């Protein structure tokens, strides 16, 4: 567990989280113990690569579940190619093919070029 705590509280991890706009709390043994023991399938007291990925995904899922505005904001920021705080029709049209056949089919629906979503105004900062 000590290795996991060291990684979660490392400067590198904080830099990555800050770069993604996520405020990560300091982790302690008491606030990760239940999840740690749940994913430590071989009961070794340390996490192998697969167990750590499951641990990290569980932390990320719980964080997203508790912060739906953050998820919506992150999605809009991903689609917003020019970073102006708005998702324009042209950006949606460039994003849809990434969704595979369903997204390509949605391209057949005409979306006027003037349509845009000012997500920065409606969603705001996820930590508000």
Question: What would your notes on this structure say?
Answer:
The protein is mainly α. It is built from 8 helices and 2 strands.
Give the helix tally. Answer: 8
Instruction: Identify the overall geometry.
Output: elongated
Strand order of the largest sheet: 1-2
How far do the termini sit from each other?
33 Å
The radius of gyration is 19 Å
Roughly what fraction of the amino acids lie in strands?
Answer: under 5%
> What letter string, H or E per element, gives the SSE order?
HHHHHEHHEH
Mean pLDDT: 84
Helix residue percentage: 55-70%
As residue ranges, the low-confidence spans are none
Largest sheet: 2 strands, antiparallel
Structural class: mainly alpha
The total strand number stands at 2
Kindly summarize this structure in a few lines.
The chain has eight helices and two strands; from the N terminus they run H-H-H-H-H-E-H-H-E-H. The protein has helices spanning 2-8, 11-19, 29-39, 49-66, 68-79, 89-95, 101-106, 119-122, and strands at 87-88, 116-117. A two-stranded antiparallel ribbon has the order 1-2.
Task: List the SSEs and their pairings.
Layout: H1 2-8, H2 11-19, H3 29-39, H4 49-66, H5 68-79, E1 87-88, H6 89-95, H7 101-106, E2 116-117, H8 119-122
Antiparallel strand pairs: 1-2
Name its key features.
128 residues, mainly alpha, two-stranded antiparallel sheet, 58% helix, 3% strand, elongated
């Amino acid at each position: 567990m000590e290795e996991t705590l060291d990684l979660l509280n490392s400067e590198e991890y904080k830099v990555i989280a800050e770069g993604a706009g996520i405020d990560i709390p300091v982790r302690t043994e008491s606030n990760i113990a239940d999840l740690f023991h749940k994913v430590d399938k071989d009961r070794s007291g340390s996490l192998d690569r697969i167990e750590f990925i499951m641990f990290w995904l569980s932390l990320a899922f719980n964080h997203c579940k508790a912060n739906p505005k953050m998820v919506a904001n992150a999605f809009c920021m991903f689609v917003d190619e020019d970073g102006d705080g708005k998702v324009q029709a042209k950006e949606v049209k460039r994003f849809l093919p990434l969704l595979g056949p369903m997204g390509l089919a949605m391209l057949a629906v005409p979306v006027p070029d003037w349509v845009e979503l000012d997500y920065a105004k409606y969603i705001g900062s996820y930590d508000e």
